[in-house]
Design brief:
This protein is an alpha+beta fold. The chain contains 19 helices and 44 strands. It has four domains: 29-178, Jelly Rolls; 182-397, Chondroitin AC/alginate lyase (Glycosyltransferase), CATH 1.50.10.100; 546-777, Distorted Sandwich (Beta-galactosidase, Chain A, domain 5); 790-918, no CATH class.
Amino acid sequence: MRLLLLLIATAVLTGTVKAGPVLDDILNTMYIDQSLVRSGDDYITVTRDKPLGQTFVTGERTVRICRIALNVDYNHESWQPGESLVVTLWDGLQKTQKLGSFSIPYERRQWNGRILMFSVEADVQPNRQYYFEITTEGGDGTIHGILLARHDCPYQEGQAYVGGQPIDRDIWFETYVKKPVDRDAQFEEFFSNFDLDLPALAKVKAAVEAKDWDTACREFLNHMESRRDIFPEEDATPGLRVPPGFDKREADLVVEQKWPAQDGTIVDLGPNWNYHAIWPTLGGVGLTRTGLMKPLAWAYSATGDPKYARAWNDMLISLFRNYPSPLKSGVVKGEGKIRPTVPAGISGSLWDAISIAARLHHETFYNRFRKSPLFTEDVRIAWWANMADMANCLERMEAGGNWTTQNMTSLFALGQKYPEFKKSKKWFVMGFEGIKQNLLDNTFPDGALREATTGYHSFSLGMFFDTIKRAREMGIEVPEEHMKRLEAMFNYSMYSTQPDWTLPVWGDTNRPIDQTAQILAGGRYFNRPDMIWVGTKGKEGKKPEHDSIAFTESGYFIMRSGWDPDARYLVTRNGFSQSHYHHDQLSVIVQAYGSDLLPDMGVYTYGTPECSQLVKTTSHSTVSVDEKDISPGNGDNKWAALPGFDYFDGTSPGYNGLPGVRHRRRIVFVKPDYWVVADDVTGEGTHKSTQYWHFAPGKLELDHATGTVRTRNTKGGNIAVIPVAAEAAAKPYVTEDLYAINWEKCGKSPVARYEQNGPLPHRFLTVLYPYPAGKSTQAKVAYLSSANEPAARAAKVFAGSSIDYVAFSDSADKVEFSSAKLTLSAQAALVRTDAKTGKVRSFAWFDGSALSIGGAILASSNTPVKALSVALVGDTLYVNTDGPASGLVVSTLGAKKAIINGTQIRVPRGARTIAVPA
């Protein structure tokens, strides 16, 4: 690195105006020379009196060794603060001449993939043996954890040593080197990425043909930087556009090669702008997207302070030089498609597909420094060389899911934005065709993303929409199938919208996620008044047609009382997901009276223990067995939504490590007021089943006598979770659990657990009763059992002016609840009576053929009817069915007229029943 620092200083001091030594060095790509990376299982210890060493031979073109990489277990307890691991390069085993040395202290020991890179930066000769030695500094002089290569893969050109004595194993190592600079070849390769036949590049072409590389570079930059559609003048003038909420403290740390971690600690990235550094709260993409660019660019734009421009230039030199393309560094061999992830080492995750897809469009950062003389011409040209390398790599990467969405969107936009690239048309077509296919591949026909995560649904929708809209504006025809699928994605978002106008949190997502602006854009584009209504939060357009709705292909089921701000809303999920999912099948999210009552707990920084916990089944409002996670996959679902009655019946795909154990959840929505949830855990053996109810942060009230748990919000809404079960299942444990405030901060929120231990089956019956803050819930419950069907159970709910009976049965035969004189042949049934008179106001069933109460027949059919809802409103009987209803007869409840499935008919005087037309 000493040579590189000298080159940087020379370029800055001379105010470089032509392609110089820094660019020569960057374009002369670093690559893997010697590599012995077949990992064994054995680690070795280095001590003060017994250093480790390895001889090796340089390649036939190697003239400089830049880095030596080792695989080190840096978390081993032997490596303590104050200790450093040192690699020294010698001219041979006799150590006559020291060529270079690099020390990594304890504070900088954590590298991606445990691949520590020692920047020895030494000139060498080709085809010659050299020796590197591993020693320690400080502490007790002992560090364990240097990985050895596999014993059956000896290094033929060298030998490992301990304390100067040869051993029968080699050290795991790689050398990253440079060949001699060949300016003509390097610049020819660089300019081969561009279409020099474009009239705008005529001067560049002439200079290239004359091999006048300085002029070619200057003319190239003159053209690219004159494009005001890419580089607007106002953004290149410090102080004209200060980013909102700008704070330069982060940028000041970056100038010192430091980064503020999410837990508040400061990560040292020195001395060479280490993009491979990792730390406990490192995110999934770390610094690989905007990385250190954004804070430097914003700080310079706001202040014009040259220290930020100087740091920007130095950082880019390190980035372009020390992290070469895997296509050029020797990581990737051969032609054809490659994986979307790059292994740790010389190139590393900085070259993962989603990382380079983002960095391909960072010209806004470039533009912030465009007028600074400290942003040198060498580095500007290197920027465009790096752009070409990234695009050439991305076009070969084969991914899936939203990675493909990002990759194809990036290539499409790159091809459209930069016709100067020779492959621009290829990238444009590849991106457009790829995004079309990905739209169909990564979404369900009902519009939901195949990754069960709200955030990625909205993220992907934005990319699909932007790409297709731009293509159509250019006159490119988009097939009707794709337009319908795109509209379906907007439709899913619209119907998922909660009463507070945010979307429910599923999978790797955090609240709040307000996508009304995106939905409004879809509404305007597709001329959908309902989307416009949601997008404008009810100010324009027309309210959506449905309240409750099922997205059966993706497995989302939404129950809502209406579209008003105080609406009661519940959504559950029981479907397949490709990635970014949580083990949340059959969990519920509840919002009512404008409040999150039973929310999802969100997600924390990828790779952290907190993230792992939030993904688990136990962090969701569902049932876990033996603390195991629900298996990913499709569940079996049934659904009906009728006026006054919604019904969901879902069975999960099982639990990890518990073959044959299943969770079934049934939910009845007694519209518009509350839900009754029946949970069944079936299978063999003795287990512990735990029903979890996760609340939003706040205080809870526990009624020890009934096991009821209530929230105590002073504004908005509250909810009572009321167990309707035998005593053993009605005693909750109220504790606190993790709740993600955002991706970088976790808090605690209350959770209630109801447990059953013993042989399966286990059964729970629960009422979820929301009510406005400032009022007390009047709901009381009683448990009803059936003598002739042990699995059947019912809740008698005293709900203000009504008494409701909600029953569940596993049998197609007649089930009797004698204490309530309730008889049914149905999977589920609801009867609502007047609390004072006892008269039936409404009733409903799912998959039923008979229902009666107090000896009076409410409905009967020769064959099962999928769903039935009957309600008396004034003197009118409203009857709604789902599915064939041949032979169905219902009680008139004393009505004078009836509206059956939207058609009004007269009720004969004195008639006690009426036949429903088939």
